[in-house]
Specification:
- The chain is 24% helix and 22% strand.
- With 45 residues, it is of the alpha+beta class.
- It has a two-stranded antiparallel ribbon.
- The termini are close together.
């Protein structure tokens, strides 16, 4: 199993959608989705 860590800092004024978009652009092998209530993170094999 491969384990990775990511350190990410966001401005307090950023919306959650903006933060998720920024995170998604940093990591190529995962998808991050927010449906208004839940954040889901899925990895590609």
């Amino acid at each position: 199993m491969l384990s990775q860590q990511l350190h990410f800092v966001a401005e307090r004024t950023m919306s959650l959608d903006e933060i998720i978009d920024d995170l998604s652009s940093l990591v190529n092998d995962i998808e991050i989705h927010f449906d208004g209530k839940q954040i889901s993170v899925t990895g590609q094999k």
